[in-house]
Amino acid sequence: STEERTLYEAMRQKALEKIEEGASTKGGARHLQILAEISRLRQLSCHPKLVFPDSSLKSSKLELFSSLVEELIEGGHKALVFSQFVKHLALLEALLKSKKIKYQYLDGSTPQKKRQQRIDAFQEGKGDVFLISLKAGGVGLNLTEADYVIHMDPWWNPAVEDQASDRAHRIGQKRPVTIYRLVSQDT
Description:
The model has no long low-confidence stretch (mean pLDDT 89). This protein has helices at 2-21, 28-46, 60-74, 86-98, 112-123, 158-165, and strands at residues 79-83, 103-106, 129-133, 148-151, 178-181. The longest helix has 20 residues, at 2-21. It is of the alpha/beta class. The chain starts with a helix and ends in a 6-residue tail after the last strand. Helix 5 (112-123) links the parallel strand 2 and strand 3 (129-133). It is globular and about 55 Å long. Strands 2-3-1-4-5 form a five-stranded parallel beta sheet, with helices on both faces.
């Protein structure tokens, strides 16, 4: 939206100013500052609440996700949804709950026993959507019930993102798998 674009541009300009102010900083500290600013911009491009928790600004990406998931479910499809930001997954989870969409959830803090229970539940048809943090879902998952994969934000390393997508491309998959990558324009 225009409002999101304006906020993003203001944050981008502020990030450049902070980086320029710290130009005299040497070594790893400068690199960490740049990384922190880029991370904030990446979060902002997902949802304003990830950077400004009290923001009332709506997320175009969340609205697109909502309509996409509803369309997929109406078509009898199931989806794996990945984000690198656990706070972003929490916003997606709240949306799914508000729409009474059945889902499973997995992030790095999920205990091993519950992890397997949730994987088994999804494979048994208990849930139309599986929300997964990119790090937690990179290896060891076989989720062939899903025929759609949605990446809510691009990962630093595209190979990790591809590996996560491969969770649906496993032995036993009987349908074509479609992958969506939701990227905010001009970010």
